Amino acid sequence: MRFLLTPVGSYGDVNPFIAVGHGLKARGHEVIVFAPEPFADSIGQAGLEFVSSSSTEDFEQIIANSDLWDPWNGLSVVLRALASRLEDNYRTLESFYREGETVLVGHSLSLATRVLEDVKGCPSATVHLAPFAFRSEHDQPALAPGRDFSGSPRWVKHLFWRMADSLFADPPIRSQLNRLRKSLGLKPVDRIFKDWFHSPRRILGLFPNWFAAPQPDWPVRSRLTGFVFGGRIGAEPLDPELDAFLEDGEAPLVMTPGSANRHASRFIAASIDAANMLSRRLIVLTPFQDQLPESMPKEVIHAERAPFSLLFPRCTAVIHHGGIGTCAEALAAGIPQMVVPFGFDQPDNATRLLNLGVGKYLDVDRMSHIRIAEILKELIQSDSVAEACAHHAGDLRSDTGVDAAVDVLEALVGIKT
Fold it and tell me: What predicted TM-score, i.e. pTM, was given to this entire model?
């Protein structure tokens, strides 16, 4: 079969699709990945065919927009960008479709994939990388640290989602989406992210049920696979300079604001000062060197990126933004997590880490090096946190997420393993 995979986002979004694609290819399938141009090399190195969904310039323009990391405006930035490419991406995707031989596998935000599914009626699946994509009036996803409406009556939650759709989610893309649908003979859709963005055939959640238990109002066609550790496919050894730093002293802290965050200077500076306050060594991971302070202590080293699966087990704790891939790798490494979430799924992921007992979070508006240091000290010295980290690292010792996802996708076309 030909599997068309359509991730949307940064490395944390694309890497799990690469891993699933690699698993599909290992079982003899043809795999084509539609993704932004910056990920062409990673996709090619995994032995998968790459097709561009947007240019490097388009990608850079999105991540240069500071509103991307605003809790209330970030989604609009992404959706407006997707709207501008929606028809072109649909036409490109359609050109690779083969009747009776194609399975569509789309990211939560790959709306062109959902349109093609509606047109063709072919085997398809929507992939949600984090629980945040599953709305619920029971265990409602957290939208900001400490503000998850969990204790509110269901009618309040229902009203909230209706307002969120009408004010934030639908306006940036609804007109372009329905214009394309009309040209294809399809009916218009409303409240796009309530029901329609879920494939009517299959939905995959790439996380375990102990991270987020399925709720009574989740679609019954949903399947959880466990975490998919995308960054491990073709991972190179640690940079020699970074490896030498790790060897030359006690296990350091590691800090990453996310691979696409160009607006993290304050977060990085606060993390460096917190590490200094604790007399701890620190690794700062960011591809954007201009975010670093002009001078850094000798106990701090910078690297553009590193494979988390090799780095995290050699660190004491991780300071990060709450991206689901970083959360999963830190859970697998069994180290505490200090999270400063910015937007998207990050506040919800941070809340779940707190509930698991493996981490704590800090609202970005209240962020300071003193608070980061205080929280890190609590986490590192806590026996209960150490026990929780070890417990969940044990849960992830058998890395079965890719195989589980591939099993579900093959079952769409009657292949049983």
Answer: 0.96
Order of strands, sheet of 2-6, starting from the edge strand that comes earlier in the sequence: 49-54, 30-36, 2-6, 102-107, 124-128, 203-205, 222-224
Lowest-confidence region among 74-88, 191-205, 231-245, 380-394: 231-245
pLDDT at residue number 234: 73
**Sheet of 337-339, strand order:** 300-303, 282-285, 253-256, 317-320, 337-339, 359-361
Is residue 41 within 8 Å of 67, Cβ to Cβ?
no
| pLDDT tens digits, 264-288 | 999 999 999 999 999 999 999 999 9
pLDDT at 149: 67
Asked if residue 317 lies in contact with residue 337, where contact means CB atoms within 8 angstroms, the answer is yes
Dig out the tokens for 220 from the structure.
């019954």
- Superfamily in which the 2-229+399-411 domain is placed by CATH: Glycogen Phosphorylase B; (3.40.50.2000)
CATH number of 240-395: 3.40.50.2000
215 is written with which tokens? 């709720």
- pLDDT band of 233, cuts 50, 70, 90: confident
Phi, psi of 31 (to 5 degrees): -130, 125
